[in-house]
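Figure 2 data, in text form.
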Amino acid sequence: MAATVLFTITGGEVVPEIEMPVSATVLELKKKIELVLNLKVERQTLRYDNEEINNDQSIAYYDFKKNVATLVLHFKLLSGKPKFNLLVKSNREEFNVKVKETTLVAEVKKKVEKHSYSIKYLDFYHLSTKMDDDDLPLSAYYVSEGSEIDVKHKFHPYY
């Protein structure tokens, strides 16, 4: 058995890959996911082959084939669906918009447009993933309290 396992974390639009030693526990993997996705450990549930994996078990316990594994991440939405400030960054400025994890991407774009941006010339990114689907909630991109999105101008060739 190799000394590490490469995990692909699915379940949302952002799909990180995280390498962990087989001696690490699932809880340690969740702590690494927290660092990468800004999702608290207690809000995470990881599944492998439709089975929830246990925080106390070592990664070696699960005997992942070929030392690569795809895990599905589910995370609990904040109870009561509270609002929080989402930091929006562009090359011109930074500002906050009030959102919930259930706010649709299209609604965020409308809020950004109120800051004198024409959204038809902008792309939105979270964790280097383009937020293409306006009908998805922010939670699909793992946006939560403390998150930020980057707004970039679309490339338009000159005519």
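Caption note: Residues 84-153 form a domain with the Ubiquitin-like (UB roll) fold (CATH 3.10.20.90).
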